[in-house]
Amino acid sequence: MQTIISQLSKTFKIARLNVEQIINLLSDGNTVPFIARYRKQETGDLDDQTLRKFETEWQRLLKLKERKKEILRLIAERGKLTPELEAKIIEASNLATVEDLYRPYKIKRQTRASKAIEQGLQPLADYMLSANATEQGLLERAQAFLTKADIPELKSVESVIQGGLDILAEDLSDKPDVRRGLRKLLLKEGLIQTKQKTDSDSIYRMYYDYQEKIETMEAHRWLAIQRGEREGFLRVSFICPDAQIVSLLSRWYIPENSQLYPRLFAMCEDSWSRLLFPSLRNDLFKMKSGIAEDESIEMFAKNLRNLLLQPPIKDCNILGWDPGYTHGCKLALIDKRGEVVEINTIYPFESKQDSLYAEQQLLAMLSEHHVDLVAIGNGTASRESELWIAEFVERNKLKLQWLIVSEAGASV
């Protein structure tokens, strides 16, 4: 806990005592608005937005600590925990790094590599990575293994060699440094490409032929693309510099001047396409979605705050106009105190007769109650409503003002 307190103190630039007091307040079930309003002395006068960020980071660090503890236990139970590995896990600052460090020791479902290891092909895989490995030496070792092992699945020298390559492909894909480096590269260079999946039109039409770097894609576009894919309108692809990545993998992994370079290069291609790419793609998409959701929530909160803090129009009787076609335009009149005076529904767009009747209804409402302003919602039929009211005011020579207002938050 002391490490978490130190990290929070450094991140939010507040005293350790304030960190401890905020954690105690949150642990006791106090809400952020209550703490921000009534516990300013304990928090160092942090506002509610900073306190929410504090709470989120505190929860992240707690989950990270618990995951580290669990992973250390699991690796220790397998007898694989070394002081160096333990130090790396303890020092890791995020969950992705912790999971990368744990990945080589994780008990997995049976894979091509695990099956090859069970068959006894690990020594052959080790030989292929040795500096003095030769093609002739590899063939001789594979033939000797094939003759001695008598394993039905291994029917040829090449199938034995492929088993060794499968072991190396998984070993390469599990290396924490490799995954970390490729994750950074994909974030910087990866492109999101979207195509139309069906012939039908939809609200996602702007993404029917679209591409953008994943790093620069804004939250609202990312979330829209994800929804479009879930709803079956979009086909989403992740485009990467495959040749560049395989070249990097070969330089990282293949011994210099190896006589087995062609085989090992093909193994790097397999490791990338079959193991690394699908896994890292999922990691990046999950990370991007988390960031996009957080940014969207923050933006929504900011916009909602600005909307709610707009000053009211004082000392006016206001007629609220919710535009619509099939279900009509819903009207609600409030007085200067905000009390609802009258409600009604009119149908100005159905027919000429309906429009005339709607005009009579509205005139009756205006003659009975003084109205200073008409507030028209900006939803469906908003423009038609504004045009109708403008003609109505001109035709009846009324001194009536109107404006268009946001319907955000008005519908449920």
SSE layout and pairing:
Elements: H1 2-12, H2 16-27, H3 32-38, H4 40-43, H5 48-77, H6 83-91, H7 95-102, H8 112-118, H9 122-128, H10 135-149, H11 157-174, H12 176-189, E1 191-196, E2 209-213, H13 219-230, E3 234-239, H14 242-253, H15 261-308, E4 318-322, E5 329-334, E6 340-346, H16 352-368, E7 373-377, H17 382-395, E8 401-405
Parallel strand pairs: 4-7, 7-8
Antiparallel strand pairs: 1-2, 1-3, 4-5, 5-6
Helix pairs in contact: 1-2, 8-11, 9-11, 10-11, 11-15, 12-15, 13-15, 14-15
Description:
There is one protein chain. The chain has 412 residues and is an alpha/beta fold. The chain folds into four domains: 2-105, RuvA domain 2-like (Arc Repressor Mutant, subunit A, Orthogonal Bundle); 112-188 and 240-305, Orthogonal Bundle (Tex N-terminal region-like), CATH 1.10.3500.10; 191-238, no CATH class; 318-405, YqgF/RNase H-like domain (Nucleotidyltransferase, domain 5). It is 59% helix and 11% strand. It is built from 17 helices and eight strands. α9 packs across α11. The longest helix has 48 residues, at 261-308. The two termini are 43 Å apart. The model has no long low-confidence stretch (mean pLDDT 92).
Briefly say what this structure is:
The chain has 412 residues and is of the alpha/beta class. The chain is 59% helix and 11% strand.
Keywords:
412 residues; alpha/beta; Arc Repressor Mutant, subunit A; Tex N-terminal region-like; 4 domains; three-stranded antiparallel sheet; 17 helices; 8 strands; 59% helix; elongated
- The helix fraction, in percent, is 55-70%
What order do the helices and strands follow? HHHHHHHHHHHHEEHEHHEEEHEHE
The side-by-side strand order for the widest beta sheet comes to 6-5-4-7-8
- Rg, rounded, reads 33 Å
Uncertain parts: none
Structural class: alpha/beta
What is the level 1 CATH name of the largest domain?
Answer: Mainly Alpha
Looking at CATH, the homologous superfamily of the largest domain is: Tex N-terminal region-like
Number of domains: 4
Binned strand content: 5-15%
**Mean of all residue-level pLDDT scores:** 92
Q: Helical stretch count?
A: 17
Question: Could you name the CATH topology of the largest domain?
Answer: Tex N-terminal region-like
Shape: elongated
Distance between the termini: 43 Å
CATH architecture group name of the largest domain = Orthogonal Bundle
Extended strand count: 8
Major beta sheet, specifics? 5 strands, mixed
